[in-house]
Design a protein that fits this description.
The structure holds 2 protein chains of 2 kinds.
Chain A: E1 15-19, E2 27-33, E3 36-46, E4 59-65, H1 73-89, E5 99-108, H2 113-127, E6 136-144, E7 149-151, H3 155-160, E8 161-170, E9 177-186, H4 188-225
Parallel strand pairs in A: 4-5
Antiparallel strand pairs in A: 1-2, 2-3, 3-5, 6-7, 6-8, 8-9
Chain B: E1 5-6, E2 12-13, H1 16-22, H2 24-32, E3 49-53, E4 61-67, E5 70-81, E6 92-98, H3 114-127, E7 138-140, E8 144-156, H4 161-175, E9 177-184, E10 189-199, E11 206-214, E12 218-221, H5 225-228, E13 231-240, E14 245-251, H6 258-279
Parallel strand pairs in B: 6-8
Antiparallel strand pairs in B: 1-2, 3-4, 4-5, 5-8, 7-8, 9-10, 11-12, 11-13, 13-14
Helix pairs in contact in B: 1-2
Classes of the chains: A alpha+beta, B alpha+beta.
């Protein structure tokens, strides 16, 4: 079968990441999977509202804005899912009585937006030097009507898919998924195939993230020595 | 024993309720480390679920569901509406979850909080086109369709919003009777005959099962409120009548491996049998 953009079934789209482009936030990252592009800005640790103040840890907040239109309950869902995942990953006990705010803005949506948002958030948190237990990278798979499993689907493939699976993996050796969102009409066998494909793709994304951070660090090192 | 007695060894001994409030994590650990839960349930034991259909006579479909101390009522009102221009043959199902201070102190009065919004959205994703065929809600293509407004109101909350909401909505949709409606093309008025109700033919029924990873180490089924507060990860599995998977949703980065997820899916299948009997 040929995919609309002629990719292999196991081929993810071209990844692109730009760190630290926003100058008001503490850290930022723009992460793209092909035509899907998400911008994330992180404030933290900053002042927290008394109501949200936690005595022993930082309060984590996620704001998610879609590319088009006002935020709806759909975006609230994404905010909640991302927040619950990063709440366990951020070493919040190091910054009690503060706030870490993760602002996500979708710039362009062409499928796998949730995965790009998780990736952008990870990179932005690193850019902001928020201490993390581990990094996570997300990947999406779609099971098409034909039963074929394709990785990193674009919107056209998602519209025709029988089920969509977004999984995020940490960079720890155990390799268990930090986040799973599998929806549609699928079998355990299809889920397992998607799991494996997402795990491999997430490894590639993590390797890419590592290179991006190394690039930023070496650039800063050069700036410091001149 | 009064609260805060100082025993001979110098330790302060608390009454159970005080201990539960002041050291919730330690309280739960006393049970979890012994392989049991504070309610006496086993790790993979779900609370008994009771479903009653038709509890609201003024709604076209309704149900009341009790899972332990969590009680929820679902009412579905059917209204005539104009279809979307892009989908002239399709009606709507709008789901709304209501979590108010009435059911628990976790929720504040006023606009729906995050839990309510997320639950409403998740129900919409699960039920969407999966359960009700939108074309079965059509009265007259391009002019009149049924808009089903499902309100899921929690009366008492003791953990597990989504399971209770899914079961309640499934039961209410099975209970739903739509009046036979006709569009008078001359006047543009839709007349509905209440006495000639017809039930919706549902595409499938959804059977949920939620598991929580308490204190980062103990995976328990159907967590109640006290256990939910200490969960570092939550997994929801939804299957249909033929055991096909509809949803696996894990949020919270607590560590759950592949084999555990597979076990959760199996347990969801076992629970389905009990739920199916209740829905009869």
């Amino acid at each position: 079968m040929t995919r609309p953009d002629r990719r292999e079934v196991t081929q993810i789209r071209a990844l692109h990441c730009a760190l630290g482009r926003l100058n008001r936030v503490d850290g930022s990252a723009q992460f793209s999977h092909g035509d899907t592009s998400v911008l994330c800005g992180v404030y933290g640790p900053v002042d927290v509202k008394i109501y949200d103040e936690k005595l022993d840890r930082a309060h984590i907040e996620v704001k998610f804005r879609p590319d088009i239109g006002v935020p709806t309950t759909k975006d609230k869902w994404t905010e909640s899912a991302i927040r619950q995942t990063f709440e366990q990953l951020i070493l919040a006990q190091l910054h009690p009585r503060t706030l870490v705010q993760i602002n996500i803005q979708v710039r362009q949506a062409d499928g796998a937006v949730d995965a790009a948002a998780i990736n952008a958030a990870t990179m932005a948190l690193v850019d902001a030097a928020i201490p993390l237990h581990s990094m996570i990278a997300a990947a999406t798979c779609a099971v098409l009507e034909s039963g074929d499993v394709v990785v990193d689907p674009n919107q056209e493939e998602i519209d025709q898919a029988r089920s969509i699976h977004t999984l995020a993996f940490t960079n720890k050796a155990a390799g268990n998924p930090a986040y799973i969102d599998s929806r549609g009409d699928f079998t355990m066998d299809e889920y397992n195939r998607c799991y494996d494909l997402c795990a491999t793709s997430a490894e590639r994304v993590l390797a890419f993230m590592r290179k991006a951070i190394e690039g930023k660090v070496s650039k800063e090192a050069k700036l410091n020595t001149t | 024993m009064s609260q805060g007695d100082v025993a001979n060894s110098g330790q302060v001994v608390f009454a159970i309720e005080a201990f539960k409030r002041i050291h919730p994590v330690e309280f739960q650990r006393r049970f979890l480390t012994q392989g049991t839960r504070h309610s006496g349930r086993g790790f993979s034991q779900f609370r008994a679920t009771h479903v009653t259909k038709g509890t609201i006579s003024t709604a076209q479909g309704s149900s009341t569901v009790r899972i332990g101390n969590t009680t929820v009522v679902c009412g579905i009102k059917a209204e005539v509406s104009e279809p979307d221009v892009k989908t002239p043959n399709e009606g709507y199902l709008v789901t709304n979850v209501d979590l108010s201070p009435m059911c628990s102190t976790h929720f504040r009065p006023g606009a729906p909080g995050e839990t309510a919004q997320v639950s409403s959205e998740h129900l919409h994703r699960l039920f969407g086109d999966n359960v009700v065929d939108p074309e079965s809600l059509c009265i007259e293509p391009g002019q009149a369709v049924w808009a089903l407004s499902a309100d899921i109101v929690f009366l008492k909350y003791d953990g597990n919003v989504l399971d209770a909401a899914v079961i309640a909505l499934t039961a209410a949709l099975e209970d739903l009777q739509l009046p036979k409606a006709e569009l008078d093309s001359a006047t543009g008025v839709v007349s509905a005959d209440k006495t000639m109700g017809q039930r919706l033919k549902l595409r499938k029924r959804l059977f949920p099962a939620t598991f929580s990873l308490v204190d980062g180490a103990y995976l328990v089924a159907d967590a109640d409120d006290a256990e939910e507060q200490l969960a570092t990860a939550t997994v929801m599995v939804v299957i249909d009548d033929s055991d096909r998977l509809i949803n696996i949703w894990k949020r919270g980065a607590g560590d759950i491996n592949r084999e555990t997820i597979a076990r959760c899916v199996e347990d969801a299948g076992t629970r389905k049998a009990a739920l199916a009997k209740e829905l009869e």
